[in-house]
């Protein structure tokens, strides 16, 4: 058996790429790992920014492309797209024969990845399990957790939730969120060094990035998809009332996406807002640079909960999509009320970036922990990879679990010393 282990990562949407990019780089450069990259779902679609183009531009080779999104963008289309994804990804894994599959977060496409891998007895690693949200994504995330063999969570709260779901303590690791790797890089070189219009196009008003601006990213809520058009219209009206320059990003492909998109187009045609520019997608680093210099992020994206907290960017979080999720002091929560949104935005834009310094003082455990774990554990060294899952979930006297508990880098009750992790960063 070859000493090289094949790590298959499935990217299904544009946010997934920023969540895993630094891990892809680490896998790619590891002497004992072979990266197998599968791009699927909305990451392939032009109306959502064709994230695959940015992936390939960064030098990654895409082994397989899986088209699995059905037209309709309602709850039935989501269910059917998931089923199609299971069928297509099953063939992909059969042909690629990976030693482990990595799935990311909570989108409905990710459960297709988990099912296809699990039923072929391929060990599954799940990134960002144990978190909560205010829509169907939470159920998908927890379902991924129950199907996964390795759990790479982003915080202690999530770790405890995964344990409460019944997962083995020895299989759960608080690695932090790998998107913070990119945010950390941006903090070191935050200057906007690209021409927005030339590089990314978009439609609408010209935006002068040397002057104050805000960023809006609002997705439909899958459990409230029928109100998507009305919800986005209220936000459009509120932002327009502020008179501020605005960079508005297109929504994810979810139930309700048609309503959100229609609401944007209708408002744009009827009211012709003088300070809004609408953009489909951007390279992760460029997007974070825009965020860093923005006066405020508005909407319901998880980037407001995570990256903006690290960067110190004020956030106005609208509605229930991030309900119960951990958030920093930079976030103000409001409902779908035009006046409330306007007032919150005007309040947040006056706030200084006082949050970032606190975050930079913390030790951030990067995704390199995951790579170090894979390198040390039997998934990279065992002569019986097929029996790995069984051995992991054996009785409490399991030799492998005992050995794993002894690895001080991954003790659940302690944070590793940065000096003990070669690639660890101190922010």
Account of the 3D structure:
The structure is a single chain. This protein is of the alpha/beta class and 427 residues long. It has 2 domains: 5-178 and 366-426, Glycogen Phosphorylase B (Rossmann fold, 3-Layer(aba) Sandwich); 183-360, Glycogen Phosphorylase B (Rossmann fold, 3-Layer(aba) Sandwich), CATH 3.40.50. It contains 18 helices and 16 strands. It has helices at 14-29, 51-57, 75-96, 108-118, 137-147, 156-164, 179-188, 196-200, 228-242, 257-271, 284-293, 302-305, 307-311, 338-348, 356-360, 368-376, 388-392, 399-405; strands at residues 5-11, 33-40, 64-66, 100-104, 124-127, 150-153, 172-174, 203-204, 213-217, 245-249, 276-279, 297-299, 315-318, 331-334, 363-364, 425-426. The strands form 3 sheets. It has a 7-stranded parallel β-sheet with strand order 3-2-1-4-5-6-7, with helices on both faces. The chain has a 7-stranded mixed β-sheet with strand order 8-11-10-9-12-13-14, with helices on both faces. Strands 15-16 form a two-stranded antiparallel ribbon. Helix 2 links the parallel strand 2 (33-40) and strand 3 (64-66). Residues 359-367 and 377-427 have low confidence and may be disordered.
């Amino acid at each position: 058996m070859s000493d090289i282990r094949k790590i298959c990562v499935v990217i299904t949407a544009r946010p997934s790429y920023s969540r895993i990019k630094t891990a892809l780089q680490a896998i790619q450069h590891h002497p004992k790992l072979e990266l197998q990259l599968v791009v699927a779902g909305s990451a392939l679609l032009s109306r959502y920014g064709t994230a695959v183009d940015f992936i390939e531009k960064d030098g990654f080779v895409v082994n397989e492309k899986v088209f699995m999104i059905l037209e309709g963008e309602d709850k039935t289309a989501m269910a059917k797209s998931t089923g199609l994804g299971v069928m297509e990804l099953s063939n992909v894994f059969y042909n690629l024969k990976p030693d482990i599959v990595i799935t990311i977060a909570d989108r409905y496409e990710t459960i297709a990845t988990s099912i296809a891998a699990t039923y072929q007895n391929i060990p599954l690693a799940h990134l960002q399990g144990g978190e909560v949200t205010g829509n169907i994504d939470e159920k998908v995330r927890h379902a991924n957790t129950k199907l996964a063999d390795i759990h790479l969570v982003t915080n202690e709260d999530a770790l405890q939730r995964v344990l409460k779901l019944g997962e083995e303590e020895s299989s759960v690791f608080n690695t932090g969120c790998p998107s913070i790797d990119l945010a950390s890089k941006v903090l070191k070189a935050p200057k906007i060094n690209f021409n927005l219009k030339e590089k990314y196009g978009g439609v609408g008003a010209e935006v002068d990035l040397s002057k104050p601006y805000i960023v809006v990213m609002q997705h439909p809520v899958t459990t409230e998809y029928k109100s998507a058009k009305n919800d986005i219209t209220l936000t459009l009206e509120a932002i327009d009332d502020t008179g501020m320059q605005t960079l508005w990003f297109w929504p994810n492909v979810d139930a309700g996406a048609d309503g959100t998109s229609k609401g944007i187009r209708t408002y744009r045609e009827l009211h012709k807002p003088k300070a809004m520019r609408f953009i489909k997608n951007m390279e992760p680093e460029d997007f974070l640079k825009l965020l860093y210099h923005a006066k405020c992020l508005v909407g319901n994206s998880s980037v407001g909960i995570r990256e903006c907290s690290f960067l110190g960017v004020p956030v106005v979080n609208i509605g229930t999509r991030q309900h119960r999720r951990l958030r920093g002091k930079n976030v103000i929560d409001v409902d779908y009320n035009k006046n409330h949104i306007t007032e919150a935005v005007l309040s947040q834009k006056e706030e200084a970036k006082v949050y970032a310094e606190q975050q930079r003082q913390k030790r951030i455990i990067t995704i390199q922990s995951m790579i170090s774990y894979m390198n040390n554990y039997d998934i990279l060294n065992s002569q019986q990879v097929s029996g790995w899952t069984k051995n992991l979930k054996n009785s409490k006297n399991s030799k492998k679990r005992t050995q794993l508990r002894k690895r001080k880098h991954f003790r659940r009750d302690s944070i590793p010393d940065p000096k003990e992790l070669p690639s660890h960063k101190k922010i």
